[in-house]
């Protein structure tokens, strides 16, 4: 059944009003107060929107990831790693498949991953579907249980289950089953940015505003105007001729032209869009080439990386990990889970290891706990489970007594 979806073609029947509204093609719904139509394609014409999506999707999709399981509180590698996780698609590399998932999440708020399986139910490959083609529905059975199902515009009349399609959602409002689209929620702001960008381009295209004007009373022939222009440029153009004295004769007047304050303010307003888009996607503005207020994310590289991981990357990787883990569990592996190596982005900094050292020296954590945070296996023979105390760094419970003569 899933092969029909992956190989199916869109219907050629007439599109109904319901289809238009469902797929977000309605110009009334996507129209903004600025007069601009906002959808995924038009939103990404803003460089700040495109850069935000590219930055988040490229950063997460290129992180290392693997399968793990918990044993006695320690995180251990689960081996062997399923083959479908090593190569998710025949045609695309893993980072490309994950990148598609993230782009879908960041634009539509939903990601639908089709799982192609063999006769035994094992996953063969993953395919990220166009979210506009899929409609999720919550079906209530006679016994009161609920089941999430999916319908596709490519295969009308066919109902798919979670075994066929894994849904990964962004922010979800109470009572809803679909994620909220960041693009649609911020369409007024994005529409304003598109309008300002279009206005600026049109101003430079149609403005025809010269840098300066020489007014000459009376009639001047074409040859005379060209000769005056050339003579002026020969005398005053270039850094070597800067600030030379200009002599105007026969009542000529020189005027310097400039943009109106309204036009200048409008063009400057385009820069504010970058901060709004950074706020929308939870990114520090300096990553979008806007240094305004960059210190609010920290003054050092470590602090900025930690803030980036905490507020920008972790929410997305958590959703992606949950989706891939659900697919893993559907193949019968009930103890394993998928985890991305976010720690690699802050590993190696002095602040990180200083924190570990302080916690170890004061007996707060043991070596195996620190190693698990770094996705490392525990030490053999339970050597890393001991806690230490200050002063002599002795093992807890093994302190030596000192007699009155100072002899142990």
Which key terms come to mind for this protein?
flat, 408 residues, 40% helix, three-stranded antiparallel sheet, single chain, alpha+beta, 14 helices
Give an overview of the whole structure.
With 408 residues, the chain is of the alpha+beta class. It has helices spanning 2-7, 17-22, 27-30, 40-43, 47-61, 83-86, 94-108, 182-185, 187-206, 222-236, 261-281, 301-329, 350-361, 367-373, and strands at residues 65-71, 74-77, 110-117, 123-129, 134-140, 146-152, 155-160, 165-169, 212-215, 253-256, 337-340. It is flat and about 100 Å long. It contains 14 helices and 11 strands. It has 3 domains: 2-194 and 268-321, no CATH class; 210-258; 347-408, no CATH class. A 3-stranded antiparallel β-sheet has the order 2-1-11. The chain has a 3-stranded antiparallel β-sheet with strand order 4-3-8. A 3-stranded antiparallel β-sheet has the order 5-6-7. The termini are far apart. Helix 5 crosses helix 7 and helix 5 runs parallel beside helix 11 (261-281). Helices cover 40% and strands 15% of the residues.
Helix content: 25-40%
By DSSP, the count of extended strands is 11
**H/I helix tally:** 14
Gap between N and C termini, in Å? 77 Å
Mean residue pLDDT = 81
Enumerate the strands of the largest sheet in spatial order, edge to edge or round the barrel. 2-1-11
Low-confidence stretches: 11-28
Biggest beta-sheet profile: 3 strands, antiparallel
Which structural class should the secondary elements be placed in?
alpha+beta
Series of H and E elements: HHHHHEEHHEEEEEEHHEHEHHEHH
Portion in strands = 15-25%
Overall body shape: flat
Number of domains: 3
């Amino acid at each position: 059944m899933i092969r029909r979806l992956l190989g199916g073609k869109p219907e050629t029947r007439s599109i109904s009003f319901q289809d238009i509204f469902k797929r977000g093609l309605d110009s009334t719904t996507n129209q903004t107060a600025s007069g601009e139509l906002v959808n995924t394609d038009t939103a990404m014409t803003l460089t700040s929107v495109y850069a935000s999506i590219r930055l988040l999707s490229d950063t997460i999709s290129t992180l290392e990831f693997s399968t793990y399981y918990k044993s006695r509180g320690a995180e251990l590698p689960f081996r062997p790693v399923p083959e479908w996780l090593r190569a998710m698609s025949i045609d695309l590399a893993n980072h490309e498949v994950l990148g598609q998932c993230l782009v879908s999440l960041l634009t539509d708020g939903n990601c639908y991953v089709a799982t192609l399986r063999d006769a035994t139910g094992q996953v063969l490959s993953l395919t990220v579907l166009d979210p506009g083609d899929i409609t999720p529905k919550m079906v209530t059975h006679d016994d009161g249980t609920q089941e999430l199902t999916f319908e596709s515009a490519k295969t009308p009349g066919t109902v798919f289950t979670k075994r066929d399609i894994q849904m990964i959602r962004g922010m979800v409002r109470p009572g809803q089953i679909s994620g909220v689209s960041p693009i649609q929620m911020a369409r007024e702001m994005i529409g304003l940015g598109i309008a300002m960008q279009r206005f600026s381009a049109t101003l430079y295209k149609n403005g025809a505003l010269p840098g300066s004007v020489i007014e000459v009373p009376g009639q001047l022939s074409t040859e005379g105007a060209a000769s005056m222009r050339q003579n002026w440029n020969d005398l005053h153009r270039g850094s070597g001729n800067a600030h030379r004295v200009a002599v105007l004769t026969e009542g000529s007047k020189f005027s310097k032209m400039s943009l109106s304050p309204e036009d200048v303010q409008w063009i400057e307003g385009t820069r504010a869009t970058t901060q709004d888009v950074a706020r929308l996607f939870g990114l520090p503005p300096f990553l979008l080439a806007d240094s305004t207020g960059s210190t609010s994310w920290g003054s050092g590289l470590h602090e900025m990386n930690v803030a980036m991981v905490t507020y920008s990357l972790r929410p997305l990787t958590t959703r992606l990990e949950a989706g891939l883990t659900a697919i893993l569990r559907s193949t019968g592996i009930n103890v394993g889970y998928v985890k991305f190596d976010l720690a690699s982005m802050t590993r190696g900094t002095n602040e990180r290891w200083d924190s570990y050292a302080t916690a170890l020296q004061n007996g707060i954590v043991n070596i195996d706990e620190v190693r698990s945070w770094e996705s490392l296996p525990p030490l053999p023979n339970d050597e890393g489970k001991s806690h230490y105390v200050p002063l002599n760094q002795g093992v807890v419970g093994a302190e030596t007594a000192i007699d009155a003569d100072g002899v142990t």
